[in-house]
Design brief:
Elements: E1 7-16, E2 22-33, E3 36-46, H1 51-95
Antiparallel strand pairs: 1-2, 2-3
InterPro entries: Rv2632c-like, Rv2632c-like_sf
Protein name: DUF1876 domain-containing protein
Organism: Rhodococcus koreensis
Length: about 100
């Protein structure tokens, strides 16, 4: 079995959005993917400063960052698959004998 481990690093930042409204932003970064780093972002508003509201807002921001990262990872895999299929198709066309022109 060939086991691999990929790590996701999540960073949170609380800040003032427009001078009066607090928000929390999150960045989720996938490292160790063949040298490629993918990053997703998420944000949530802080409607209250008590600890329960802050914790909920942080969870929402992280969930949004992970969802964004997931979409980017799927898009990257789909792009790579399309390139591999085109290369495979081209290799098959080059390696196969020419088709007679029936017309």
């Amino acid at each position: 079995m060939n086991e691999q481990q990929w790590s996701v690093d999540v960073r949170l930042d609380e800040h003032m959005a427009d001078g009066s409204e607090m928000s929390v932003s999150a960045r989720a970064r996938l490292v160790g993917l063949d040298g490629v780093t993918l990053e997703g972002a998420g944000r949530a508003r802080l409607f209250a400063r008590h600890s329960t509201a802050v914790t909920i807002s942080k969870k929402v921001a992280v969930a949004r960052a992970l969802a964004d990262l997931s979409h980017r990872l799927l898009r990257s895999a789909a792009d790579e698959e399309a390139v591999a299929r085109r290369a495979n198709r081209a290799a098959q066309e080059i390696g196969s004998p020419a088709q007679p022109d029936i017309g």
